[in-house]
Design a protein that fits this description.
Number of helices: 4
CATH class of the domain at 14-99 and 111-129 and 140-154 and 171-185: Alpha Beta
CATH superfamily of the domain at 14-99 and 111-129 and 140-154 and 171-185: Hotdog Thioesterase
Radius of gyration: 18 Å
CATH architecture of the domain at 14-99 and 111-129 and 140-154 and 171-185: Roll
Number of strands: 9
Largest sheet: 7 strands, mixed
């Protein structure tokens, strides 16, 4: 099988791109990250700062985009014929960020810088869920460098279910909880005996 071509205009040398991409895919497989939730990004000249490496704010934006990719994959799951009933098209749009209804807002993020990132490079942003509680969700994101063939950063974030119409937090829809569990989330703070959340 031929190696995948680098994206048009990609600055990383083709063989480095191919070897780095394969290393990233191997890492994703070994650590149970779904490629459906993965996002490939490339560094840009303007991402660098006076220290000649990628500015420390840039990976935070990549992780934000990775979380969006993850949520879109979850919403696609909820739209499939095998998904639990009860989540209509508008509710799925709201989860994707319509700014109304019951959506997702970001509450907290921690980012650990493992290595500096240099231009040019391509990176695979890998996100999966860790835990889900009645009103919040934790996700873990890894930033994997093709040029260095290694993780260069990792993030953990907390997302909250938020009712934009009422202006306050709200419990997750049951279908969202079950969808996250299918993607590996561990339930915390739910009373499994009565099947009701402790709110």
């Amino acid at each position: 099988m031929a190696a995948p071509a680098a994206p048009l205009g990609n600055a990383l040398e083709p063989s480095a791109y191919s070897l780095g991409r394969q290393a990233a895919l191997d890492y994703a497989s070994q650590h149970a990250y779904s490629l459906e939730c993965a996002l490939e990004v490339s560094t840009q000249w303007g991402d660098m700062d006076a220290n000649a490496h990628i500015n420390n704010t840039v990976p935070l934006r990549w992780c934000e985009s990775g979380r969006g990719t993850f949520m879109r994959a979850v919403v696609r799951d909820l739209a499939s014929p095998s998904a639990d009933p009860g989540l209509d098209a508008q509710a799925r749009d709201d989860l994707n960020g319509s700014g109304r209804g019951r959506g997702v807002i970001f509450g907290e993020v921690r980012y650990r810088y493992l290595r500096p990132i240099f231009h040019p490079d391509n990176l695979l942003i890998l996100t999966h869920t860790s835990t889900i509680s009645p009103k919040s969700l934790t996700v873990k994101t890894v930033v994997f460098s093709y040029a260095q063939r290694a993780p260069v950063g990792e993030s953990e974030g907390t997302l909250f279910s938020f009712d934009h119409d009422l202006g306050r937090s709200a419990p997750w829809h049951a279908a969202v909880v079950e969808g996250m569990v299918r993607r590996g989330a561990r339930k915390v703070g739910f009373d499994e005996g009565t099947k009701k959340a402790k709110l």
